[in-house]
Specification:
globular; 129 residues; 6 helices
Length: 129
């Protein structure tokens, strides 16, 4: 999978989710699409996605698990956006986005720990065999 020609397309598709979400929220809030603010908002929303995609650039680091991590980050982003829209007062919504950074940081660290634990367990099993 990671060596297939579909892998870059799947990674790119995952990177479109933050931009699409930003545009949909603009429509939900009955404002213009906000294309003039798309770049900085996209960079903030997709920061963890871009970090994971840096790993996908190097052929040695390409793993199907990267797609799972990107999917998890997209689910986190969608859930966080829903929380901001539905539970946070409108005047405080900008400040609420500060909480997004530790959340995606936790997801990235947990994903790395799980990946290392599984890799270590597989290495132990292959040595013991």
């Amino acid at each position: 999978m990671a060596r297939s020609s579909r892998f870059p397309a799947l990674i790119a598709a995952q990177l479109f989710v933050p931009a699409i979400l930003y545009l949909l929220v603009g429509l939900y809030n009955k404002r213009s699409l906000g294309l003039e603010h798309l770049s900085p908002n996209y960079l903030f929303m997709a920061a963890p996605h871009l970090l994971v995609c840096l790993l996908a650039i190097w052929p040695k680091c390409r793993r199907p698990e990267l797609l799972w991590v990107l999917s998890l980050l997209n689910l986190l982003l969608i859930a966080f956006q829903l929380w901001v829209l539905l539970a946070v007062p409108r005047q405080e919504s900008g400040l609420a986005w500060v909480l997004y950074i530790p959340l995606w940081g936790t997801v990235l660290v947990a994903s790395a720990i799980i990946w290392l634990a599984v890799k270590h367990k597989v290495a132990d099993q292959s040595v013991g065999t």
